[in-house]
Queue: 4 jobs
Job 1
Amino acid sequence: MKMILFFGAPGVGKGTQAKIVSSKLNLPHISTGDILREAITKKSWLGIKAKETMNRGELVPDDIMTHLIDDVLKDPKCKKGFILDGYPRSVHQAEVLQTIVDVISDDPLIVISLVADVDIIVDRLSQRRMCKACGNIVNLNFLKNSLKCPSCGSIDTFIKRKDDEEDVIKNRLEIFEKTTSPVLHYYKEHDNIYEIDATLPVNEITKKILEIVT
Ligand SMILES: [Zn+2]
């Protein structure tokens, strides 16, 4: 089984890489963001609780995430492996994940850590917009002053999500730093963590990741 975990601050580009590697290796991409959004859409009690904390820029409580992740990783669609993105975010979650992994396979987790400077991340995220017509996420830095949505062609339909406001970003990065540094140490004690410079071009990062995992 190939169990790959993407680690890195919000905005570092791990979602993008997880999607690319997922399609190249034909493994399901398990994004906690997607799992949470689905729970929120369904308005399950887990979803409602999660939404309240996310709106404050805080992390979703461990017990909620544990339930959601356990269900997903034990699903038959993950029998050849999976790519996990955005989890674990605490040492407790890392320990819980390890017990789940031990049940489903003898293979080790491969941890890919994407690293970038805080200023670069804040700049990237504060330029992020969502097209309110189609939901596409774009970065104004790459639109070259055009306000046309590259996905649906609508003009001037971009809005800034609450998640991408600068104060929320800074709060998220602070929380990330505080709560996830211990997770990084946890994985550094195991010998299967690989660090990659997240400021490299997207295709170079993908190449490095594929060399590690294949
Ligand atoms: Zn659009």
Job 2
Amino acid sequence: MNKIIFADALKGLAVLESNSVDTCITSPPYYGLRDYGNSGQIGLESTPEEYIQRLVAVFREVRRVLKPDGTLWVVIADSYAGSGKGWSNKNNRGVRPQTCANFDGIKPKDLIGIPWLLAFALRADGWYLRQDIIWQKPNPMPESVRDRCTKSHEYVFLLSKSPRYYFDGEAIAEPVAESTIKRLSQDVESQVGSSRVPGKDKPMKASHTRYGGAKYTATPDKFNRTKSGNMYEFKEKRNKRDVWTVSTKPYKGAHFATYPDTLILPCILAGSRAGGTVLDPFCGSGTTVQVAAEYGRHGIGIEINTEYEPLIKERVGDYQRIALEEVPDE
Ligand SMILES: C[S@@+](CC[C@H](N)C(=O)[O-])C[C@H]1O[C@@H](n2cnc3c(N)ncnc32)[C@H](O)[C@@H]1O
């Protein structure tokens, strides 16, 4: 059964049991980008430092509820420091904290470096920072900028609670490249090899991609060969790469920051066993819980805005509803 907790992330996490969740996949509110219209919301702090501190506190609670072999996947984009001029809340876009431009030498127009500030702060707080995956968007938001390139990527940070953790690389392995198939379709055994490889004293021949260690390493007898000895069928897979090309999808519901289901599916498959538990403390319209449920996991979502409940309902169907007290105004 899926569970949706309507509360501030910190308070919602407090009701969850320690060591109970397999993986957490989430996208926190980005810094200075949107006003979600709730006084307890994260994202509109006046300095990046304050914003990062609030997120670190939330993720510390996430670490408590994760199983010892659990993982955290954080989808996050960078922000530019604004002058504060032209501050506008129209269409929930263009909110630029003015004071940020005087923090830590950051000037208006500077890229703040939010993803790495967060990654380093989480590492300092005890997380193992395992990977910076690049989400490359073939269809980025058009930008009217004339003095830099259009931004077309975000980060997906993979962090773990312990040095050794559950990661099913096989579940997300990808087909080998066409060029590898061609290269290995040669009769490698009878090749002499090239002696012009710098630093090598033996001739070098085409070799096979190893996937995940000796267990998956192909041996010549695993391939089908034609009479001439060429391989004609090649079914091996390779380790998933750390640049993920995923198009953003327009979402018809009234939420401005949904991530594509195809972006987080690999995180669910690699980070949890079937029947496991997947958590999203900033669940928005419920994408994580929906995909987790579709793939036989239990989903737990936490969201501060009850106004997203109809969207969650539409996407997730039945769930156990827990509503904690409204967060009081500061
Ligand atoms: C980037 S969106 C997440 C969108 C989600 N990944 C999806 O696909 O729908 C961040 C969400 O965090 C929520 N939020 C902001 N501050 C929060 C807080 N303190 N506790 C819990 N949720 C919060 C916002 O209302 C928003 O829905």
Job 3
Amino acid sequence: MPFIDSLQKNIWALYIPPFPDELFSSWYLRLTQAHAVKSHSFGKYYFPGQQFWTRDVDNMPTDYLRKIIFDSTPLTYNTIESLFLTSYQSYLFENHNPNGFTSGILPLGIVHRKRKHKGLLYCPNCLKNNPYYKKKWRLTISYVCCDCGVLLKDCCPECKNPIVFHRLEQGDKNKVTILSLSLCSHCNYDLTENSVKATQIQLLNQSNINNILQVGYSDHIQYSFHYFHLFQNITNLLSRRNNTWGRLRKACEFEFGPLPEREENFYFWSVEERLPLFEIACKITNDHSFLKYLIVNYNLRLSEFSKDYKLPYSFEKIFKDY
Ligand SMILES: [Zn+2]
Ligand SMILES: [Zn+2]
């Protein structure tokens, strides 16, 4: 490890910086590729005891992991923190749960080194321009790439398997194979193919959502984590048929046609199935005249929205004004 005078420390010889909004795991795999070693060997040498692929490492950083990165790179602690999903605390969610489910984060369903769920999305065009994975591609509120104007995908279009880029290095145990992160690790399909253009309204919805997440504030509901909590709650109501708490879904099916129906929780649905619910939730949270219309015409009850948590005052007020 060369000693860098200006930093007064030794850094990894073939250090490469993370790209904008890059996920830790994506940068880590690229870093090990730059050193021409398997991620397992690199981890064993520099991070003894740390698990990388048998846990959701992007969602569960440890102080140990942060410290080794700090000691071996020119990165500041702030930049290191920004590689992990925990950095959405106070923006997407109020409190991060280090031991499991956190609102707004897509689950991977980790079984050993494999993934059961399609919890990592991607933009085919971004992967073509620069093959790395972004942090916002792990979120339930991400559907469109606003840079490219295309819909995000959640699996390989060819073999339908989830995206598990670290498995690209599998194969001969002693041979280091360096493949682009833009390939499917199951069938080698080029994931940069077949992008689907987003509509203007989809693009607008996503850019509003991204903006709220970035600034941490929404015009109507103030703190962004309150906004996203309400947003998740609405999406959840839309996703389930329910005799007691089903008025919103019924009203929206009347307005927009049948909505997808699945036994599983919304978090496990495919991105295509979740998209129509996302669009309706955007309309309800952004267009208060539409919400008022639903309240009046379908006799919606405040209790349906507030059954699990305290509603933001501005949202409650729309009901109370009727
Ligand atoms: Zn893109
Ligand atoms: Zn595939």
Job 4
Amino acid sequence: MPSTLVTGALGQIGSDLVRTLRAQHGAEAVLATDLRETDTSLGGLYEPLDVRDGERLKALIEQYEVDTVYHLASLLSARGEQAPELAWEVNVNGLRYLLEGARARKLKVFWPSSIAVFGPTTPSTAPQQTVLEPTTMYGVTKVAGELLCQYYATRYGVDVRSLRYPGLISYGAPPGGGTTDYAVEIFYAALEDGQYTCFLAPETRLPMMYMPDALRATLGLMAAPAEQIRVRTSYNVTAFSFSAAELAAALQEHVPNFTVTYAPDFRQAIADSWPDRVDDSAARADWDWQPRYDLDTMVDDMLVHLREKLTIPSNP
Ligand SMILES: NC(=O)c1ccc[n+]([C@@H]2O[C@H](COP(=O)([O-])OP(=O)(O)OC[C@H]3O[C@@H](n4cnc5c(N)ncnc54)[C@H](O)[C@@H]3O)[C@@H](O)[C@H]2O)c1
């Protein structure tokens, strides 16, 4: 049976994406891969794969007759600053091995870029086509990755599609070392501790999205007819933007005694280099992208699911 392979499948996005793909195509049609030797958390086909090992990647593609790859394996922004060399090897070399495999076996590929491609010279509402001068190694790898994707699409006809995800909020697997992790941590802190120390300043505003919208955007882009995909670097997508203080206030409406203090660390400089908002009109026009969640409906839904997960009773 032709199958779908997901790299970095045990991460924040991968674990939710694998469940969604398996619900659509059947458990046996989706092969999850990640660094861990074994995994039972996702409950289906799993193989260990370090994406820096191009030969193993090729072997798995052949063995499982893979026709579609969601390539999520990556070091994120904060981890990438701590290990820039490794970030390049995983994010750029890993992608290039995959694109070579895609070229040889005519695979369809999804690869996520990020708002980290933008930098201080990008306008505060980032247009689709704009200056890309990131200040982090993560951003550098994402710009290189976007250009690689466009190159393989135009030179070799590889059907590779990409989204510049904003910060993603979810209640499944924890985030893996990014600059927007605070927007997930704060929910757990509100329910479990009643207080949170935020690593960004209160006025820091960033583009964000709730995971169900990110999954809809991903699957919507992959389902669109190829001729509608006019951007082969990566599409801007967004749902809403909020500051750390606005998210704290939205949570305090549900958890009135919740307190937040602010102690910005090295991630503040990363956040300051990114735009406040993203213009995603190209995605809306080309393949009908539209988010469903805004800040309030995201907060409501997150709290319902987290209370269930953490077995915390709802407010009377
Ligand atoms: N989560 C977000 O807010 C966000 C925002 C923008 C872009 N993205 C992008 O989406 C993709 C997935 O992000 P995520 O949030 O799920 O990240 P994550 O850190 O939660 O998961 C990444 C996974 O990749 C795996 N990995 C790391 N090195 C690897 C290697 N050498 N070989 C194989 N696997 C390896 C990790 O074990 C981890 O499970 C990444 O490309 C990331 O840049 C995420």
